[in-house]
Amino acid sequence: MDLIDCKSLTIDQLRDKLSGIGVPAYRAEQIRSWLDRGTDDFDSMTDLPLSLRAELKNIFWIPGINIKKRLVSKTDSTVKYLYTLYDGENVESVLMKYRHGWSQCLSTQAGCRMGCAFCATGAGGYARNLLPGEMLAQIEKAQADHGVRVSSVVLMGMGEPLDNFDNVLKFLRLLGEPGGVNIGMRRVTLSTCEIVDKIYRLMEHKLQLTLSVSLHAPNNQIRSRLMPINNKWPVEQLLKACRDYGEATGRRVSFEYAMIDGLNDTDECARELAKRIKGIHCHVNLIPLNQISYSENTLRKSGRERIYRFLSLLKTLGVNATVRRTLGADIDASCGQLRRRYHQSL
Ligand code: SAH
Ligand code: SF4
Predict the structure, then answer these.
(1) Spatial CB neighbours of 280, under 8 Å, sequence gap ≥ 6
(2) For the chain, what is the total number of helices (H) and then of strands (E)?
(3) Cα dihedral across residues 226, 231, 232, 234: positive or negative
(4) Is the Cβ–Cβ distance between 215 and 258 less than 8 Å?
(5) What DSSP string describes 112-172?
(6) Does one domain contain both 151 and 203?
(7) Contact at 8 Å (CB) between 259 and 308?
(8) Which residue among 153, 154, 156, 164 has the greatest number of ligand 1 atoms within 8 angstroms of its CB, and so is best to mutate?
(9) Which of 101, 105, 183, 299 is a plausible cystine mate for 94, CB 3.0–4.6 Å?
(10) How many CB atoms neighbour CB 96 within 10 A?
(11) 3-state secondary structure of 305
(12) CATH code of the domain containing 48
């Protein structure tokens, strides 16, 4: 019989499994409380009888996660973690301080299959999907290590959340559990390169999370050059899905747009973008491209002046847009860069 991943169960599911082997319900709370504190072996759960600990090991397993590296920004309060998972895979996560509290950027996969031209994660290859409990554990470890309480979450680390759909959905359920990390759906942002059929599946769940779409180009010609997924789901279908998502959930969609010198940052691109997203309840985030340093990559970030001209053009055309503040620039806080560097130095 396969062992059950104990950390990815909701408290009700854990209670059910325990009652199936005749263990009283209150033991579920005890186990959950150890798990929430980052305990990843049953032997350390000292308020459980020895016989129960032995029995649990025959039924469950706990995917462990450890901090391999911690980088603290000298210019702001950002902290970047490199975690090692039970099988030796590494993922990154970033803790950021905002006026309203601490926000954490989480990884949903070890690597990514989408292969976007500008992204360090894509360049590092794909290893596997993360388990729901491994997503939750990134928060628990950071909270314990840094002595803070995380109040909002962005799924904008390594990986494509919609490519790990079922586990991400289970994780979102765990995230809102009272007694645990307890972060509500309105404080969650899910960033996606937009796998359109999965957007529609997500819509059926009517979650109150914010959808952040990595658009990066106003047309198929430029987007397909940057993002292979665009060959499967072109801009027209992507924008239709965003429109439908906004209407079905009443939530404002956010578009991410990394500014790349001479490619997607022209006045013409700004006008085309404004025209295409007209009528969608949305916000555009302009981000200076974070240049990744591998020689074959020739994408350069746009100059400051260009970015602000693009911004003002969008605003003139009635688009709600801002330039995103970059936190932790001195510690490679964009996900994927630390893991890649670590792999290269092995
Ligand atoms: N796979 C998801 C979430 C992870 S990537 C997605 O693509 O949305 C998180 C965000 O970082 C995305 O908006 C992505 O386009 C952006 N990104 C990746 N590499 C970047 C880089 N080098 N410079 C700026 N933004 C980058
Ligand atoms: Fe994957 Fe997102 Fe990076 Fe594209 S930008 S390779 S989808 S992590």
Answers:
(1) 239, 242, 243, 246, 253
(2) 12, 14
(3) positive
(4) no
(5) -SS--TT-HHHHT-EEEEPPHHHHHHHHHHHHHHHT--EEEEEE-SSS-GGGGHHHHHHHH
(6) yes
(7) no
(8) 156
(9) 105
(10) 22
(11) helix
(12) 1.10.150.530
Number of separate domains in the chain: 2
Please give the Cα distance from 142 to 155 (Å, whole number).
15
Closest ligand 2 atom to residue 193 Cα is: 7
Give ligand 1 pocket residues (Cβ under 6 A). 118-119, 156, 160, 191-193, 214, 256, 258, 287, 289-290, 292, 334
Ligand 2 binding site (Cβ under 6 Å of any ligand atom): 112, 114-116, 119, 121-122, 159-160, 193, 214
Expressed as residue numbers, the domain containing 30 is: 4-61
CA distances from 301 to 42, 261, 292, 298 (A): 49, 5, 10, 10
HSE of 87, CA atoms in CB hemisphere, 13 A: 8
pLDDT in tens, the chain (346 residues): 799 999 999 999 999 999 999 999 999 999 999 998 888 899 999 999 999 999 999 999 999 999 999 999 888 889 999 999 999 999 999 999 988 899 999 999 999 999 999 998 888 899 999 999 999 999 999 999 999 999 999 999 999 999 999 999 999 999 999 888 999 999 999 999 999 999 999 999 999 999 999 999 999 999 999 999 999 999 999 999 999 999 999 999 999 999 999 999 999 999 999 999 999 999 999 999 988 765 456 899 999 999 999 999 999 999 999 998 766 666 665 655 555 544 443 3
CATH of the domain at 123: 3.20.20.70
Neighbours of 35 (CB within 10 A): 21
Q: Cα(116) to centroid of ligand 2, in Å?
A: 6
Same structural domain, 46 and 82? no
